[in-house]
Amino acid sequence: MHEANSQLENLRQDLGDLRDQVEEGLRSLASQSSTALRALEHLRSERDDSQRERDMLRESLKDKEKVEQGLREKLAREASASTQAHENLGQAKVATLEKQLKDKVAENAALQEEIERLEAIAERAEVDAARQASLAAMRGSADSNADLVHLRSQ
């Protein structure tokens, strides 16, 4: 019986050691599980942060695409307006030059008419002056003749 008691005691001791090992294993497993859970929570948090960041980047990209599209449309409108303004300016310059040319032609025509009118007046004045000179010469001749007649009669 002694031997059975001794065996029983050894078994109890082995069982105690086994319990201690199991408890140590459970504590280690609990610690590892806790560490794994914390790591898992950290990874979930990082995943959520990454997802939020991706969502924000997508929204930002959409906003940038909208802004880019708006800028492209504005540039197209401004380019069209600039082209139209350039064409209008060219047409305005041509119209201004045409008007200036027409004004100069009209001014030259008016000056030509004035020259012709003045030449006609000058020609009439020359004819009148020649007539007057001729009349004066005739009068002078008649007066001279009258003076001669008068002198002879004296």
TrEMBL record:
It comes from Cymbomonas tetramitiformis. Residues 26-92, 131-154 are annotated as: Disordered. It comes from the Eukaryota. The keyword Coiled coil applies. Residues 39-77 have a biased composition (Basic and acidic residues). This is Uncharacterized protein. Residues 94-128 form a coiled coil. Keywords: Coiled coil. The lineage of its organism: Eukaryota, Viridiplantae, Chlorophyta, Pyramimonadophyceae, Pyramimonadales.
